[in-house]
Amino acid sequence: MAGDRQTGVTASRRETLVGLAALGLAGPGAAKAAASPFKVSGVAVQGGSLIVRAGPRETIAAGAELIKTSEHGLAIVGFDRDAEPGLLISYPRPGGPPADPKAAAAEDPQALWIDIAPGTFDVQRVDGLPQDTVTPEAPETLAKIAAEATRKAAGFASNIEGDHFRYGFEMPLKATRVSGRFGGQRVLNGVPARPHYGTDLAAPKGTRVEAPCAGVVSFAESGLHYEGGLIMIDHGQGLVSAYLHLSKVLVEKGQFINRGHKIGEVGSEGRATGPHLCWRMKWRGRNLDPTLLVGVQAPGI
Ligand SMILES: [Zn+2]
Questions:
Q1: What's the pLDDT tens digit per position in 102-130?
Q2: In terms of domains, do 104 and 183 share one?
Q3: Are residues 186 and 86 in the same domain?
Q4: Domain boundary residue among 115, 147, 169?
Q5: 168 and 111 in one domain?
Q6: Span from the CA of 108 to the centroid of ligand 1 (angstroms)
């Protein structure tokens, strides 16, 4: 069925892109990459992310970010939609990130240079949305939106101890098709809007939504202006996934949930034209494509 085919496409794209990322480590640099203390898995593309393995509870540098690894030596490094074409992963350097990180990578026997492939982003025109979810004007609506934005920011800023992402993600819906890809440039009711920072998964209202990976619920509310029912799950290392437009929210903030736990039901609440799950992912303020983490296990697992 369509849902299975879509999952297959995602899987093959992942393997291809992991292959591309590996190309950056092949050839003359292969021996050096093998010697690097950093091992990576995942998809090095705009919107993608890597699971990095180093020593337990070490501080590593990924570009300008300083990251403390988990007790298993794991960290997440995410690339947003507009990420630069390459990233240096190293131990922290005196003086901070080098001016020429690629040259620095060549000189540092422990460093790893990651080539980041460009993403392909479409234009998404969505018509028929409730107009006050595109151009809200009423003062009470604007006040509600502002208050919700503050609470949502706190949910996304959650950063628990742990690395529940290490066994990878599954899809949150068992049978679905992608109805809106990550990163598309959006035109909502004819009004140019921000890019789409999620993957839309179409499914009937009431469809079971499962936690695709274990974690702690960092946000769980119904009735939000844009999102309707919204859940966020913190998977550790600042990696937070989100589930939008839910008709039912079945978990509470602070609750630990295992993979496969029913967290809610698909709906069309908020800024939506029909029932679907908008699945999002954030890491340190960057918006990531969650589907690119499906099936990616930590190196060495
Ligand atoms: Zn969406």
A1: 999 999 989 999 999 999 999 999 999 98
A2: no
A3: no
A4: 115
A5: no
A6: 41
Residue pair 72/297 in contact (Cβ under 8 Å)? The answer is no
Rounded Cα distance, 183 and 242, in Å: 16
The reply to whether 300 falls in a domain is no
Residue 171 pLDDT exceeds 80: yes
Residue 267 Cα to ligand 1 middle (Å)? 12
Whether 278 and 151 share a structural domain: yes
Stretch (H or E) spanning 215: strand 215-224
Ligand 1 centroid from CA 25, angstroms: 34
Starting at the edge strand found earlier in the chain, the sheet holding 208-210 runs 208-210, 262-265, 248-249
CA of residue 41 to ligand 1 center, whole Å: 26
278 CA from centroid of ligand 1 (Å):
4
Q: Ligand 1 centre from 29 Cα, in Å?
A: 39
Query: Would you call 9 helix, strand, or coil by DSSP?
Result: helix
Q: Mark which of 98, 115, 132 sits at the end of a domain.
A: 115
Containing domain of residue 250, as a range? 123-293
Domain identity same for 166 and 62: no
Whether the CB-CB separation of 248 and 264 falls below 8 Å is answered with: yes
pLDDT category of residue 31 using cuts at 50, 70 and 90: low
51 to each of 70, 78, 207, how far by Cα in Å? 11, 9, 30
* C-alpha 112 to ligand 1 mean position (Å): 34
CATH number at residue 231: 2.70.70.10
36: confidence class by pLDDT, cuts 50, 70, 90: confident
Using the Cα atoms of residue 128, residue 156, residue 284 and residue 265 in order, give the sign of their dihedral.
negative
103 and 140 belong to one structural domain: no
Predicted confidence band of residue 300 (pLDDT cuts 50, 70, 90): confident
